[in-house]
Design a protein that fits this description.
With 317 residues, the protein is an alpha/beta fold. Helices cover 48% and strands 15% of the residues. The protein starts with a helix and ends with a helix.
Amino acid sequence: MSRIQSRRKFLISGGVAAAALSARTARAEGPDSTLSRREQSTRTEGFVTAKDGAQIYYKDWGKGPVVTFSHGWPLNSDAWDGQMLFLVQNGYRTVAVDRRGHGRSTQSSEHNDMDGYADDLASVIEALDLTNATLVGHSTGGGEVARYIGRHGTKRVAKAVLIAAVPPIMLKSPSNPEGLPMEVFDKMRTAIFADRSQFYKDTAIPFYGANRPGAKVSPGILEQFWLWSMQAGLINAYESIKAFSETDFTEDLKKFDVPTLVLHGEDDQIVPVKDSARKSAKLIKGAKEIYYPGAPHGLTATLQDRVNADLLAFIRS
């Protein structure tokens, strides 16, 4: 090999190594410490470092007023793509986060609780310097939004939207006799520990209401539920069951002081409407309520166009 060829090989290999090191550093430190505001504004995805060092993935599409999205259990931010693209097409900036342990975020063995989820959301909102944002949460994500407002207030929040959300509290107790008994959640934990893949396939059916007469749910929708669910760490999915079922959001909901939309399907087999949305709406001052007759828990997919229209109308109002 000639001296020129040897030098060219050295430069190429050195450049590749430097680029790889730069990429790892950017991911480890997060956009708040490595990117300028201009660079942040042109990113479509990235990672933010949480307080405990966990890497929280986010996707950031479009420009305009900000709408953030918090997903349900045990999915990830891809579950919001139908809403995000629609809002981008209507002039909004959309930011969705993979909850810790789900999707592309760190599978942490700590802080798999609502306080941890809310603080991770706060880390992303602060790192991207989001203000006047509409916070949207589905199912467990609705609890995340509620706890965020309870812990961090509404100084960066313009509006909130709770879709098929778990608050005020799912678990049955003397003070919440309409709730679901602990046995329901114990069976979920046993099932995902024994065979989570099959459990997720089975859960997708009532999640989207595919077990109801006349339901039109494609195999693709059921398969994507399984795909997204399998990306969650087992420990994270397991511990999240306690977070979404036993957390009491009553005091968080009382702190809502921004316009709020509560939207729920009346045939929700996962989070029954009578013990969730209807109670939450009474705790949130001035909440706007929309209920879809016969709609399932996964209504953001099965009734995507209707949800999108109601969401846009509320944000614009």
